[in-house]
């Protein structure tokens, strides 16, 4: 297995094993806002689907400015170093 294919495999595994992520949006005044959101992968479209409430602050932020950052990370294991946890940060634009 090549290095790139191993990384792709690990990325897919991380995105399918984790159920929540840290969603970064930008508030009306330009202030960064981060919240935890549930998400799922949608293999047919190669997109991630996040589940958010219409009442949540990040929903208003996304409607005004759809630029997002999403951090997906493997949970911490007690006693293990946290700096080596598998994780990925994705950046993009939210759509409905």
Secondary structure topology:
Blueprint: H1 3-17, E1 20-26, E2 32-42, E3 47-50, H2 57-64, E4 67-73, E5 87-93
Antiparallel strand pairs: 1-2, 1-4, 2-3, 4-5
Walk me through the structure.
This protein starts with a helix and ends with a strand. The mean pLDDT is 93. The chain has 2 helices and 5 strands, in the order αβββαββ. The chain has a 5-stranded antiparallel β-sheet. Strand 2 and strand 3 form a beta hairpin. It has one domain: Electron Transport, Fmn-binding Protein, Chain A (Pnp Oxidase, Chain A, Roll). It is globular and about 45 Å long. By secondary structure, it is α+β, with helices and mostly antiparallel strands.
CATH topology: Pnp Oxidase, Chain A
CATH 4th-level superfamily: Electron Transport, Fmn-binding Protein, Chain A
Q: What is the CATH architecture annotation?
A: Roll
> What can be said about the biggest beta sheet?
5 strands, antiparallel
Q: What is the radius of gyration computed over CA atoms, rounded to a whole number of angstroms?
A: 15 Å
Short key terms for the protein model shown above:
alpha+beta; 5 strands; single chain; 96 residues
């Amino acid at each position: 297995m090549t290095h790139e294919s191993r990384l792709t495999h690990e990325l897919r595994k991380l995105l399918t094993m984790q159920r929540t992520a840290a969603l970064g949006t930008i508030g009306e005044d330009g202030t960064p806002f981060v919240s935890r959101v549930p998400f799922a992968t949608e293999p047919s479209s190669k997109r991630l689907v996040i589940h958010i409430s219409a009442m949540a602050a990040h929903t208003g932020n996304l409607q005004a400015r759809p630029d997002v950052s999403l951090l997906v990370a493997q949970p911490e294991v007690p006693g293990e170093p946290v700096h080596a946890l598998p994780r990925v940060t994705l950046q993009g634009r939210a759509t409905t």
